[in-house]
Amino acid sequence: MWRAVRIRLTAPLEAVGKSYSFSGLNGDNPTNTYGFNPADPAQWTVQGAESRDDGIDSEFYNAKGELAWRVAEGSTLKAGASYKHFENGGLQRRAQFNYDGKTGLPVVPTRVIPYSSRTPYIIADIDGTYRALGISGTVNASNAIAGADYEVREKTVAAYVQYDLNTRLGEVGVRANLGLHYYHTSLNSSGTALTGTTLTPVDITNSYDGFLPAANLAFDLNRSLVLRVSANRNVNRAALNDMRAAATINVAAFGGTISAGNPDLAPFIADSVEGSLEYYDGKRGSLAIGVFHKKMKSFITTETTPVPYNTTGFPVSLLLPGQDPAILFNYTRPVNGPGASIKGIEVAAKRDFDFLPAPFDGLGVLGNLTLADGNTDVLFSGTAVNLPLTNLSKVSTNATIYYDTGRWGVRGSAAMRSKYRWGSGGNGNIGEYIKGTTNFDASAYVNVTPQLQLTLEAINIGDEPIVQYADKDAKRMMTNTVSGRTILFGATMRF
Questions:
Q1: Residue ranges of the TonB-dependent receptor-like beta-barrel domain (predicted)?
Q2: pLDDT tens for residues 149-160?
């Protein structure tokens, strides 16, 4: 059993009747300008407080057995069966206190934000604020959020047969495995679901089964050249969080988002074909070129619909102080779409420069390049919009130069990826994206003795920002986040 519980206390402040403005909204570094000093505690009053308790419980059990029969030299028949049982449940508890516009409140302790910020500003001292307001940070079952508790139980029984072959056809070596996999999965999801404008308790059971064929072949054309070809079918069920009969609500000043699960989600089937040609120059280097294509049926995508909050069945008490109960929220849930596809090409290479005269014979390089393209339909108020697959960059590449002597070594690396889609978007925005990034890292080691090794590693040397923006055309900047550089020093002792 695995359990995660997160308890969070917040106490937002507000500065009423102040002016502010924005500039640089079309760039990566927008700026806020304030008509008052946001680092002056006298400008702020407490708006509210919230105690929140989120919990997740997970249990996983599995068993499997396998047999192998050597039919002949280079020929083996395998069979096996497995059983998996997985349970996942979640809860949310929340206690809210509204002080917006109220008078006679005690002065709450504050401090300037202790982290790096373009503009220093005041935040509440949480513990001191709760004590000054005379409220408790504890929550219990009476503070349960309607529609948030859920439980998902999944059971899968599977069996497979596989034939492995290692032989020769004339001068060509042949390695292959052919297999067939059968699965049967039953899923039960209990919680609450939105029926019309009412949250209704539900208990939904689904099941599905099927056969998954696979074939992998490798041809050793000579001592240095290998041709690989594979074709297979896979089944991919949705994440358990997507199949929960529950929803998570995030409230913002402009409205917010309700992210619901969908217990009726069906798994999607993916048919894949891959091929590669690989050249090996002993231990000194290699070069590989590969292509791939995958077609996914009933691919899981998202559906986003703006709806008035007071039609969702969630209590009005979850809204921010003063918000209209009819304010529009983005109601988002996963659905089975018509399908999706992805195709691409990969190139990978490695080479030791041992042909150079000493001391340059310790140099070497390695790198890879992936060009990929994949799309799926995303639904916005019932209208399908074709967008790139999430987390898929059209171009991804890595390159490393290294120097190794056996006693010590250094290496520097660069990793680049083009922009990719992060989410579906909402509030009229079509898609959310992350701009392309280029990261530089470096590392070094020295073997002080045969037993003691010292290491030094520098990560994100250029302090590359992560820029998130909304809408594929308007490119409205959402966040610009820098995580800083990381320097790690280590020592390893072997006994």
A1: 24-461
A2: 899 999 999 999
